[in-house]
Amino acid sequence: MTSSSRTSKLPTGNATPTPSPPRTKSAGLLTSLRLDTYSGLYLAVILVLVFTVLLPDTFGTASNARVIASSASISGILTLGVAVSMAAGMFDISLAANMTFSIGLLGALLTKTDLPWPVAVLLTVAAGALIGMVNAAIIIRLGVQPIVATLGMSSVLAAGVFWVADGKSALLDKVPASFTDAGTATIATIPITVYYLAAVALVLWFVLEHTPFGRYLYAVGSNAQAAKLAGVKVVRVQAISLMIAGTLAAVAGVVLTMQLGSASFGAGAAYLLPAFAATFLGSTQVIPGRFNVRGTIVALYLLAIAVKGLELQLPDLPWIKDLVEGLVLIVAVGITARAIRQRGTR
Amino acid sequence: MNAPAGKPRLELSAVSKTFEGTRVLHDVSMRIAPGEVHALMGQNGSGKSTLIKILAGFYKADPGAGVVVDGRPRTLGDPEDIHQAGVRFVHQDLGLVPALSVVDNLALGHGYTTGFGARIAWRRQREAAAAALSAVGHELDVRRTVDELHPVERTAVAIARALQSARGEMSVLVLDEPTATMSKSDVRRLLSIINAVRRQGVGVLYVSHHLEEIFEIADRVSVLVDGHRVATERCSDLDLRSLVDLMTGGVVDAPERPKLEPKSAPGERLLSLEKLNGAEIAGLDLHVGSGEIVGVAGIAGSGREELCSLIFGTRPREGRVTVRGRELPGARPDKAFALGLALVPANRLRDGLVAGLNVRENMNLTTVRWLVRHGRIHPGEDRRQAAKIGTRVSLKAPSLEAPIETLSGGNQQKVVLGKCLQTDPGVLLLDEPTQGVDVVAKAEIHHLIDTAASQGAAVLVCSSDETELERLCDRVIVLRYGRVVTEFRGAGIQSRRLVRSSLGLDSEKDTEGAAGNDL
Fold this sequence. Notes:
The complex is a heterodimer.
Chain A: H1 29-33, H2 35-54, H3 62-87, H4 95-112, H5 117-141, H6 146-165, E1 170-171, H7 177-184, E2 186-187, E3 190-191, H8 192-210, H9 212-222, H10 224-229, H11 234-260, E4 262-263, H12 272-282, H13 293-313, H14 320-345
Chain B: E1 10-19, E2 22-32, E3 37-42, H1 48-56, E4 66-69, E5 72-74, H2 79-84, E6 87-90, H3 102-110, H4 122-135, H5 151-165, E7 172-176, H6 184-198, E8 203-207, H7 211-217, E9 220-225, E10 228-234, H8 240-248, E11 269-277, E12 284-289, E13 293-297, H9 304-312, E14 318-323, E15 326-327, H10 333-338, E16 341-344, H11 348-352, H12 359-363, E17 372-373, E18 376-377, H13 379-392, H14 409-422, E19 427-431, H15 439-454, E20 458-462, H16 466-472, E21 475-480, E22 483-489, H17 495-502, H18 507-514
Parallel strand pairs in B: 3-8, 3-9, 6-7, 7-8, 13-20, 13-21, 16-19, 19-20
Antiparallel strand pairs in B: 1-2, 1-4, 4-5, 9-10, 11-12, 11-14, 14-15, 17-18, 21-22
């Protein structure tokens, strides 16, 4: 946005003996379309057009658009959590387990206690943040690698949710209707969950791109040693990023529960891979090479549109979602790795 | 020493290398005879390591260079071809796997002997390992892991592995600074290992900073100065003094020290080190005053390399570090900035820069907190501040938004320095401030350091480039085995004396020099 005008020249002033020659990059059509940074957005538009033409009765409908938007919102909240942790270089694979746990915890709080539902929601979200803190303590204090620590935490949480929810889904029929309304209402024909995602995205976008904390986050994720020598409190930044991620995983669990009207047991697991696929794909968009909020949102919807369109087009192939998400993850990481290699050999 | 005889095993001819318009090697040629130990000497930045890296194929030489191994021309810059020719390298880091045993480390280069069912035949493997080690005249328990070994034993394993991987066809062994971290008795043992290798007819190219051992082991020595081979002499025709003269010749006698004004005394003490201890440094006391530039010289392993990180608190230390009378706790670099201490680390790619951030973001990383207006980083302030410091350090970059990797080494270093200067530090720690930087940028960086000092900063410069210390410093301490061996002041700071003193030569004469007398 305001800070990323890529064409601005360094105001060299008169103290510089040899000012750099102005870059002669022709501003052709391709450049003005910004294909390098917004390819995903264009692809999403093309996919929408193609599927609408192919499937005017199923894909090209307002209700289908609402379904896509609403389900992508829940995975989007989790995905932003993944993006924040990845930006700090913390590979947190316990986020899906955290989401599953939050659903189970919320279900238990609503069915086994008399707490008003807003309190139960707040407690659940706090528990998610706490799980992030525990992850941070394990990674930072004990020096366990993030992926190993969070793999272990995933299993611990799986055990925990079994204990909390007795290993089954909970029907929330006694909970006031306002609870499910908060997950199913529409405002101006747009599902309310889209507003939740928008709010989360807006806050994170601001934090990541316009505050010192965001700057530190990227610095730590890229080169923790140099960040430390520049005076950044690396440990604190890493811990906060894991806490934010844990919080968002819990929020995703809460919103899903509101939308379904029941605490579905084990529902978070299916969100793990798409979240990582969208996060890595997102790092090739808008600000290439960085896990950024806008890119993640673009990737999220691109993936959702592609998967939904293919599912409708090829109803006999129930595995198409897994295939697409898996391939996207691999290709996106491949693109990132290649970009890093090219940077290194310059 | 026996004269080199027979057909040369290695012939390098007309090797030149240009980095970004700066020529660092000029038509260097050399030949190594069978069984000869040929030493390659030169100060830091003289082009030794560039030459070795070209031979190893890491770098491509400028056109016109050639290499012939055992009479057969080979492709310079092709690691495979050089390997095929039987040329082996043992670099300073040795390339061993610390957690594995000697047997495994030797087998990694050579392959395992397997028995029935592809099971590793451990007994035969151990015997093979012991045989490989005895080929370099060394015996040790091959079941021990490498991290339990002495430095010299590790080097023996690395050399045995190199010898074994050539399957008896080793033509040339290149040893790059093998003794940098060794004690004197270890060096003796290493020299006997090298003798065992040379007796097999292998030509040895030996790169080292330590002058004494050259005379014990090498037949001939080639000296590089500023990328030129200035001499190739038999060691028997040289002595320590003439060798040092060759290494420093021509460059040292023109000290240009544009001192701003002869200061009577440094100002108030800004940085104090009391009984500082680290892995190498032992009980160092040092005080640096306002406006003073203090240099630290010393060879690899003398403690010079760790001093800045010890002070800054990124390596475990004992002793007190105080900045303006306030103590800096260990392991708290974030506190260091608050006290007015800034560090330009030696390895800018690893420690100085964040590759994922652009030029502006790197410039403002430490000070970004100051740019917050109404809860967010003010984009205009962000750009203005980066542009301002960019101008101050005469940064040449395509744009402030350019990826940091697109800048040349000199300009990257200016970004690191600019980042530090922005904090307006009372104490500036500089570790190898101009390593891998072109001549023009070097002069500019030196000027910036002068300016910082003249504005009242206390500056500590650790450098392996003695001419740099001569150019910059009001006072230079020389470290050896973690202790201060000499201190030079003012006109007594001459790179030749620094080199001698770093190597432990002529300490009495140096002390005279320190008092201001000329040699």
